Amino acid sequence: MNWVLLFALILFLGFATTSSDLNYNYYRLPAALRPQKYHLNILTLLDNPEESRFNGTVKILIEVLDNTKNITLHSKDLIIDESQTTLTHVNSGEKKDNCVSSTAVNPAHDYYILNTCQELLPGNIYELNLYFSADLKTQLEGYYRSSYEDAVANETRWITITQFEPASARLAFPCFDEPNYKAPFVVTLGHHKKFTSLSNMPVKETKPHESLTDYVWTEFEESVPMSTYLVAYSINDFSHKPSTLPNGVPFRTWARPNAIDQCDYTAEFGPKVLQYYEELFGIKFPLPKIDQFAVPDFEYGAMENWGLVVYSETTLLVSETHSSLNSKMNVAGAVAHELAHQWFGNLVTMKWWTDLWLNEGFATYVASLGVAQIHPELDYLEMDFFQNLHTIFQRDAMESSHPISRPIQTVKEINENFDDISYEKGSSVIRMMHLFLGDETFRSGLKTYLRRYKYKNAEQDNLWESLTQAAHENDALPKNYEVKTIMDSWTLQTGYPVINVTRDYASGTAELTQARYLLNSDVSRSHHEGCWWVPLSYTTQAKLDFNNTSPEDWLECSKEGRSQPKTINNLPGADQWVIFNTKLSAPYKVNYDSQNWKLLIETLNSEHFESIHVVNRAQLIEDVFSLAWTGEQDYETALGVMEYLHRERELLPLRAAFEKLTTLRRLVRRTPNFGYYKRYINKLIAPLYQELNGINDTFGSIQSQNVLLLKTELVDFACMTQVSDCVSRSKDYFREWRSVANPDETNPVPIEVRGTVYCTAIKHGSDEDWEFLWTRYLKTNVAADRDTILLSLTCTQNERLLQRQLDMIFDPKGDIRMQDAAATFDSVAANGEGWLLAKKYLVENLDHIYKYFYPVTASLAQLLPSLSDKVNTRQDYNEFKDFLDSSWEYLKDIKQAVQQTKENMLISVQWQERNYQQFFRAIRQKLNEVDEK
């Protein structure tokens, strides 16, 4: 520890300290005290943007559980006026002054420690009053300010908002900033009367400020008990759109005044999905109102603050003239996710961040149920869970992955836990559990859990107990099975299995074994034996029973956690296939013997390909290409499975193919054989492209929204791979847009493919095209449109324009908002021409980039994926690995992302060395077969 630095910090904050106060260095707060209630007063001064700040007081009623001589709180970057600190014993209406003899700080854990004059004894209640202040910064965490442009008045308007998850309430007020320290809050906000103030609860009263002219105090009603990370408040001049369902709570949607017309969709969708959750969980929404609020600057997609849900503009606002169906569905998913949190996360909260996935995994899964309920015209459930599975099949196949539930000891580790494993894998294992328990048992167990722990904290074992009880009552599981035994195998260990199915066609049996699927072939499989309790659902060519997703049997683990082979009987003969994991009911891959793969390929390439359910057609493509990547299958078999796609008309199998082929394109784009790849792609998708009228604007005549989504994704892939007229028609659309009199009001480019058209036109266009689109970025009033344009600008092949964009990204006073910086850089790096420029920029400017994001340095993790994706030679791998290793000073806060980046690069190099020749042999063979026909 740097004692000189610590002493300077103490002097700066006005602390008097003794060395004995610093002995406590555990990452969790001491358990001797518990907050009973907070009275939080915040006065916000926004008059001068250069000197905006806030002053506050917090009165905390504290219950003493064990003898202690100090009060340890969290506080970070706050100036505390210790001359006004008071501590009073308030038992039974009697008030006796205690005092604070000294204070200390522990910057490693953001502790602010008050040593008391007299020992605090169990059973007593104390009132602690603290006075504090801080600058209102733009760092996108804690209590910060954001802005928007008022085009009519031609001026910048400022607002404030909070973002406290996971551990940033301590930046706004001293508090017990851990999720298990729940307490009611009484929030009072001081502000100029021209502003509106919002918080978790409805307004109780507003009265004039005692000394500041034109300022008022707005007091809000006392909240229910909640964790500090869910507290929220804002000072703003926004407009709102009310929307209350019959028997529902008041529901308002807020946005800047010049975007309030983009609130119509979510103002209608939000109350409907909230009402669905009340029925699903059997518990009414616990608060008297709910607001959803769109912020111009927001680091995350959205935040589930109880009663005041905050979103980035892109995840809440929908424009009828600019937002595509994909964009609208993303918004629906985000709103459904955050509103699901009002029960899973807010009403019942994890005890510690180890079980973050209980919040995020459940909200992700339940959100898909909510969207599917409100939008039955879409196959949303199938699309969402397949996309989740695709994500985790890639991420969790890395040695550098981690368990869903894992130990957390620092704030940096908490931030790293907000990833695909907590969200998508968490959702996938919950869906698996829903299917093997059945709907009645699943719902019954959830309701018991939520009622039992409402306004409290829980951990995953509490959930398993409630579900096991329901399962045994309903005979959904054998009495000797427990949900904990099954689910611990999925939540407490890293990875997922590949099930190897070896059939004995003479006896009609199959032996099933499991092993962890790993992309890194340098890792010995014997070091990762692992065992998962796998629910086995399957069907045969004769039965074709894909709707039965209940387990026919289980692949079990021994008491020692070792895998036990399973024999399945009564299977058909050598002329019929079998498919395991019907409708992808659990997150595992399946590899068959060569005869079974041959039978599957024969069916897929016949007129009866639709006899295999659409989800399992997608599964076969996903699995066989993953197995070919690691050498557990060959590319002749993989391409054989994909060969039928010229007749496929459903989105999921095509999406699976597009994603696999896009990954392979990245690896082979700059190789001599790339021409073969393009010929193969054209053979596969040109028939469907022509059938759907290519990129021509027939979107309005398409009745099915699933077909609309299919055409959108097909066009995007076709333009990327230069199939048919996709590039030339995109350039025509863009040229037509440039020629209209008022391009900001009139846009002839079809809404559904604007991102594709913009990117394609910029990629194959001129400097003038780029400048035209940049001007549209500066003038658009629609956040989703702004994001689409910004990322499309990175598609240029002009190095000078790419460099210009890189220089703009990390300019604090530039036109690219901080929330968009990482995604824009990643998009430049994903560009074949931009990769070297982006890598060079990162190497030369890492110190500047670090300071730009500080203190939210977790954003650095978003800069690495596309840079690592383009590394596919040993030399490039070693160079970039050396850079990462030598930059630890800046990257130490994103340790997990750095490990995954290194492994991802190595995996790409391994593919080039092991599979490149085999892949193109298989492609040439397929092309020759076509030529011979």
From TrEMBL:
Q: Which SUPFAM superfamilies match?
A: Leukotriene A4 hydrolase N-terminal domain, Metalloproteases ('zincins'), catalytic domain
Q: How does the UniProt record describe the way this protein sits in the membrane?
A: Lipid-anchor; GPI-anchor; Single-pass membrane protein
Q: Where in the cell is it found?
A: Cell membrane; Membrane
Q: Where is this site: Transition state stabilizer?
A: 423
* Binding-site residues, Zn(2+): 337, 341, 360
In this protein, which residues make up the domain named Aminopeptidase N-like N-terminal? Answer: 35-230
Q: What is the catalytic activity of this protein? A: Release of an N-terminal amino acid, Xaa-|-Yaa- from a peptide, amide or arylamide. Xaa is preferably Ala, but may be most amino acids including Pro (slow action). When a terminal hydrophobic residue is followed by a prolyl residue, the two may be released as an intact Xaa-Pro dipeptide
**According to the UniProt record, what class of enzyme is this?**
hydrolase
Necessary cofactors: Zn(2+)
**Domain of life per record:** Eukaryota
Instruction: Write down the EC number.
Output: 3.4.11.-
Annotated GO biological process = peptide catabolic process; proteolysis
The residues forming the signal peptide are 1-20
Q: How does the cofactor bind to this protein, according to its record?
A: Binds 1 zinc ion per subunit.
Q: Which InterPro entries does the entry link to?
A: Aminopeptidase_N-like_N (IPR045357), Aminopeptidase_N-like_N_sf (IPR042097), ERAP1-like_C_dom (IPR024571), M1_APN-typ (IPR034016), Peptidase_M1 (IPR001930), Peptidase_M1_aminopeptidases (IPR050344), Peptidase_M1_dom (IPR014782), Peptidase_M4/M1_CTD_sf (IPR027268)
Entry keyword set: Aminopeptidase, Cell membrane, Disulfide bond, Glycoprotein, GPI-anchor, Hydrolase, Lipoprotein, Membrane, Metal-binding, Metalloprotease, Protease, Signal, Transmembrane, Transmembrane helix, Zinc
The GO terms describing molecular function are: alanyl aminopeptidase activity; metalloaminopeptidase activity; peptide binding; zinc ion binding
Record family assignment: Belongs to the peptidase M1 family.
Q: What is this protein called?
A: Aminopeptidase
